[in-house]
Amino acid sequence: MRIIIAILLTLFVLTGIGFIFWAQEWRFSKPTPVPDHHSSIIKGDSISKSLLTSLNIKSDEQLFIHFYNFDCPCSRFNIKEFRNLVIKYESKVKFIAILETIGKDQKEIQNFREKYDLGIDIMLDEDGGIAKELGVYSTPQAVLIKNQQVYFSGNYNKARFCTTQNTKFASLALSAMIEGKAAPVFPELATIAYGCELPANGNTNTRIDKFFNFLNL
Question: Where are the beta strands (DSSP E) in the chain?
Fold first, then answer.
């Protein structure tokens, strides 16, 4: 009898864990809801001088902006892909990590720097102002800027694990920008945001998110 109970309990636990992972995957397979009063930013749009100043960059610099949220499982899955890009291209383009967070302080920057050791500029965007000006409402997202204009804005890949080579949109765009080529033309999948809503737009952790935070994924 005890063996049967143990087997049933094990099956129940495994089923529960499987459901959690399925629910998480289903949630992030859907496009991120577009917030009210969102202003889209597309390839070729100019970047304001005030934003360039706040980011401490020159108008002629090539820039890769990474939007990250500590509480977003997708951001944590994506960080390896971003780190690889920094290692490969840091001598050719300026990288900035924008931390989308509410209720955290400068310690978060230090924690991010110590955990990932990327050696790049890191900024807090607590009110989501930087993201809003660049048309970003989800994490993880990438925005590439060249000659004070948006060169690319969108997803890293069609899936959060960033394993499909021919849909590594951010990587392909970065490579083309560094080589002085025209911005690649990607399918709509590259620009429809997937992932987590920004904290500034009202996103809060669900119980499932907290479970994944506990696993430190």
Answer: 63-68, 94-99, 121-124, 138-139, 141-146, 149-154, 196-197
pLDDT in tens, 45-62: 999 888 888 888 887 889
Of 149, 165, 145, nearest to 157 (Cα)? Answer: 165
- Do 89 and 174 form a contact (C-beta atoms < 8 A)? yes
* Separation between Cα atoms, residue 45 and residue 187, nearest integer Å: 19
Q: Is 86 exposed, middle or buried (0-12, 13-18, 19+ CB in 10 A)?
A: middle
SS3 content of the chain, % helix, strand, coil (to 5): 45, 15, 40
Q: Is residue 77 classed as helix, strand or coil in its secondary structure? A: helix
Copy the structure tokens of residue 33.
Answer: 């809801």
- Closest Cα partner for 193 from 118, 135, 132? 135
Gap between the Cα atoms of 156 and 164, Å rounded: 10
Residue 4 has which token pair? 């049967």
**Predicted local distance difference test score (pLDDT) of residue 8:** 56
What are the phi and psi torsion angles at 51 (to 5°)?
Answer: -70, -45
Distances (CA, A) of 81 to 140, 163, 177, 184: 11, 9, 18, 19
Is the predicted pLDDT of residue 20 greater than 60, yes or no? no
pTM tops 0.70, yes or no: yes
Nearest of 100, 96, 124 to residue 110 by alpha carbon: 124
CA distances (Å), 163 to each of 80, 167, 173, 211, in order? 11, 9, 16, 24
